[in-house]
């Protein structure tokens, strides 16, 4: 399937869950990201049971806690 | 409040801007901002707000200047090592613009003292280090209905979101809850580029100025993500999430939770 990840077109295997997509994208620590799927932030509990579909727009938003 | 001759000269480049002019400059001079954290983000933010002639600026930081701060915290210099950050900052800011009233708050904020402080200012800038304080600022500003600029930085990257509580997405609408301690690397572990922090703090000051003027488009419902290594900025649309406790019309969170301790950039524990 063709999807958009963080503004970039990407190819990914069909039927991936959000959890699987995080692994596929080699995001080492899933707790580092908040995930927006087609404009809506997903609950972390929904990552496992949400399937990414062809044409979807995914944003991995990284936690950044620094400031000092 | 009419501008005197010195002020006309000082703010000439503002007065020339159609969106500011004399009326706008007076608005800035009648505004107040609370800068929480006098470090990597707070330094440029406080400098530019002071230069812009914001009438009253509160600076909160309980820390003292450390040599490892100086790579990015440009309010402080080598002779300031060991001095309270707010004291060092006030000295520089007074020298830059004596018209601005700098109020120093030399302590760390927690759930017991934050609400009373944010209520005393028109706009809040989250220039802090660590998730517990960032979530606390979000919750306090929502409860106090206080507009604020959120920012976070790590390595070469930064992000900024301007929140007008009850109107636009808050920090919690995007990031929900603190990640568990250790899940996200800290700047102390991962490093942070000083100049990138400067850009992000400067964007926060820009947002505050536009808010005071009531001009332009704020980073409302848009998270600005700055990747300084690839030198790209993009905005991601975000939404207010009515299911989320703080940020909904009827919040489930009525009081602030005590603060955990996990600084993200500073080496030493508070």
Question: How would you sum up this structure in a few lines?
Answer:
The complex is a heterodimer of chains A (68) and B (270). Chain A is mostly beta strands.
Runs of chain A in which pLDDT lies below 50 for 5 or more consecutive residues are none
- Mean of all residue-level pLDDT scores of chain B: 92
First CA to last CA of chain B: what distance?
A: 42 Å
The second-level CATH architecture of chain A is Roll
CATH superfamily of chain B: NAD(P)-binding Rossmann-like Domain
Biggest interface pair, residues each? A-B, 21 and 47 residues
What Rg of chain B, in angstroms, do the CA atoms define? Answer: 18 Å
- The helix tally of chain A amounts to 1
Helix content of chain A: 10-25%
Overall form of chain B: globular
CATH superfamily of chain A: Beta-grasp domain
Gross morphology of chain A: globular
Oligomeric state as shown: heterodimer
Number of strands of chain B: 8
For the sheet with most strands of chain A, the description reads: 5 strands, mixed
Low-confidence stretches of chain B: 247-252
Class based on secondary structure composition and strand pairing of chain B: alpha/beta
Describe this structure in words.
The complex is a heterodimer of chains A (68) and B (270). Helix content of chain A is 10%, strand content 31%. Chain A is mostly beta strands. Chain A has one domain: Beta-grasp domain (Ubiquitin-like (UB roll)). Chain A has a 5-stranded mixed sheet with strand order 2-1-5-3-4, with no helix packed on it. Chain B has 270 residues and is α/β, with parallel strands linked by helices. In chain B, helix 4 runs parallel beside helix 5 and helix 4 packs across helix 10. At the A-B interface, strand 4 and strand 5 of A face strand 5, strand 6, helix 8 and strand 8 of B.
């Amino acid at each position: 399937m063709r999807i958009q990840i963080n503004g970039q077109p990407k190819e990914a295997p069909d039927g991936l869950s959000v959890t699987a997509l995080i692994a596929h994208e080699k995001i080492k620590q899933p707790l580092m990201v908040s995930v927006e799927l087609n404009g809506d932030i997903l609950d972390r509990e929904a990552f496992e049971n949400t399937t990414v579909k062809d044409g979807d727009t995914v944003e991995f938003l990284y936690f950044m806690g620094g400031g000092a | 409040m009419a501008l005197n001759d010195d002020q006309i000269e000082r703010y000439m480049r503002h007065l020339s801007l159609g969106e500011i002019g004399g009326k706008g400059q007076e608005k800035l001079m009648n505004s107040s901002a609370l800068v929480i954290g006098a470090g990597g983000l707070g330094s440029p933010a406080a400098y530019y707000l002071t230069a812009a002639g914001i009438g009253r600026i509160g600076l909160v930081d309980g820390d003292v200047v450390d040599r490892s701060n100086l790579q990015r915290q440009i309010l402080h210099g080598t002779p300031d090592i060991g001095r309270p950050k707010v004291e060092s900052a006030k000295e520089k800011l007074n020298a830059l613009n004596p018209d601005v009233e700098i109020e120093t708050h030399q302590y760390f904020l927690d759930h017991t003292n934050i609400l009373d402080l944010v209520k005393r200012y028109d706009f809040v800038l989250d220039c802090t280090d660590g998730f517990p304080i960032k979530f606390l600022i979000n919750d306090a500003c929502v409860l106090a209905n206080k507009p604020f600029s959120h920012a976070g930085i790590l390595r070469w990257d930064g992000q900024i979101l301007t929140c007008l509580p009850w109107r636009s997405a808050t920090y919690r609408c995007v990031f929900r809850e603190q990640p568990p301690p250790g899940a996200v690397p800290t700047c102390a572990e991962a490093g942070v580029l000083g100049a990138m922090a400067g850009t992000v703090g400067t964007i926060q000051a820009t947002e505050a100025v536009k808010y005071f003027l009531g001009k332009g488009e704020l980073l409302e419902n848009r998270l600005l993500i700055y990747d300084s290594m690839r030198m790209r900025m993009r905005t991601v649309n975000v939404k207010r999430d009515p299911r989320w406790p703080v940020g909904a019309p009827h919040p489930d969170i009525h009081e602030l939770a005590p603060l955990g301790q996990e600084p993200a950039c500073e080496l030493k524990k508070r």
